[in-house]
Design a protein that fits this description.
alpha+beta, 2 domains, five-stranded mixed barrel, four-stranded mixed β-sheet, elongated
């Protein structure tokens, strides 16, 4: 095989793999313009379902932790108890920017997206649906009540496990490759939250933070 053929294949392979998924999700959205029910085969994490016909569906207007992060397994278990093996009703279907299907999901009239946010196992994510106002309100309440991923186990201003390891590592929500750390004396240190459900972490030394890909905040002395 010629080198240029290998390059072409490797360059375009990720896109070729994505095309069938995007086309199938578009087909899923066009199955029925009205609401319809579908069987939940598996719960992949706290905001993603595997439906019959091998459709992956994300719960619209919320973000749950990845399984390896704080509250990830609890979030998945909560959603699994609600919907696994059940036929759910899908409403307000869309594709996100990555071509993934998203929707409001109902079981026996109950909005599952709302149940997850209300219990604190998913962060409210801004979007415009019929449920926007109530989901935003419940997201704020879960945060105020310090439940689920907002509990002191995941949402921290101090390191409960190792108090002497007090360097705070933060990840930009809009760009996960942008990581900064705050040490004692930094302007925003006291108000900085370590959100472990998002993969943020504590460090014992600046060298340790830098090794993990974090850079020092510009607001530090």
């Amino acid at each position: 095989m010629k080198i240029k053929d290998i390059f072409f294949r490797n360059k375009w392979l990720p896109y070729l793999i994505l095309i069938p998924s995007i086309l199938f999700n578009l087909y899923f959205l066009s199955l029925d313009k009205s609401d319809f029910s579908i069987l939940v085969l598996e719960v992949l994490d706290g905001d993603t379902l595997l439906l019959e016909q091998d459709v992956r569906l994300r719960l619209r207007q919320l973000d749950a932790p990845e399984l390896e992060f704080c509250a990830g397994e609890e979030s998945q278990a909560f959603l699994e108890d609600l919907v696994k093996g059940e036929r759910v009703v899908i409403k307000e279907k869309i594709l996100d920017q990555r071509g993934r299907a998203m929707a409001l999901v109902y079981l026996d009239g109950e909005l599952i997206n709302q149940a997850v946010i209300e219990a604190g196992w998913g962060r409210y994510h801004h979007d415009q649906t019929a449920a926007t106002d109530i989901l935003r309100e419940l997201g704020d309440k879960a945060k105020a009540d310090k439940i689920g991923l907002y509990s002191p186990e995941c949402y921290q201003t101090e390191n409960l496990d190792k108090p002497k390891c007090n360097i705070k590592g933060n990840i930009d929500p809009s760009n996960s490759s942008n990581k900064i750390y705050h040490s004692l004396g930094c302007v925003h240190y006291e108000t900085t939250i370590v959100e472990k459900d998002r993969g943020e972490e504590w460090f014992c030394t600046e060298a340790e933070a830098k090794k993990a890909g974090y850079v020092k905040s510009k607001r530090c002395p």
